[in-house]
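Late entry, evening session. Most of the bench is empty. Finally got around to the prediction I had been postponing all week. Sequence below, unchanged from the version circulated by S.P.
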Amino acid sequence: MTLRLSLIGTLAALLLMSCAPTSVLNSNEGVAAEQVVRLPASSGRELEVRVWAASDPTVVVVFSSGGGGQPAAYERLMQALPQESFTVIAPVHSDALARGDLSGSGGPASFFSRLEDLAIARAYAEATYPGLPIVVMGHSFGSLMSALAVGASTPVGTQGDPGVKALVALSSPGIIPGLMTPDTYRTLSAPVLVVTGDRDVVPGMVADWRSHRALYDDSSVPGSALMIVPEADHNLVVNADDATFSALVELIATFIRAEALGDATARARLSKIEIGGATIERR
């Protein structure tokens, strides 16, 4: 309850403030300009948020990096999504490391700060892009943190945000003892797209790639989808070759249009997308 009250107070202050100053980090022609926004958080903490803005956005994507990772590690994806008319907002979590290690869970210490980071980022999205649907997306540990916004449960309870229309989970952290329960994904309230691979293991954390299926298998929301890419490992989103990456972006964009924008053509198209010979499972 204390956490929720703290978040409510922080978000109320954020929505009352004027838009924070931004600085442009790049502005090459034909490339989405990356901006940095600094927003107030609890205990005097300042949250750095990276923004890749579409010229005429239809959806806002709030992205959470893998444990220890920074948004910059996903630069290719951050640049591709605005070309699909999606603005991306990605907080720099407190567990971000300069080396951009994407394999860790971030540890329990980062759990509560990430909850606040993502709530602030969503509030910023709502204030800056009023009326646009919000989709949450994450990689590895970031996919679990993003799933909390669509009703996933942990021992601290649910933190669902009814304004979020869908979740895109690029791998998952597997099952983290003490943080996740058998019911963690049974309470999802929005459709999820899970992308994983049959080599998606994390030494010391995820020994069996099949554990990534839980995010899809344990949820029952219509419109959810799963793709298992042959030979793909935990860092598919970062290391994919150009052809695989293009297909991955098409898959993500099609799912978002289908579920966040209610696009019937996109919904029909989703089953026709293949990555590395893999087909999609759907409900």
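Two things to note before I forget:
The radius of gyration is 17 Å.
The helical segments are 2-16, 75-83, 108-128, 141-147, 214-217, 236-239, 242-260, 264-270.
Will write this up properly tomorrow.
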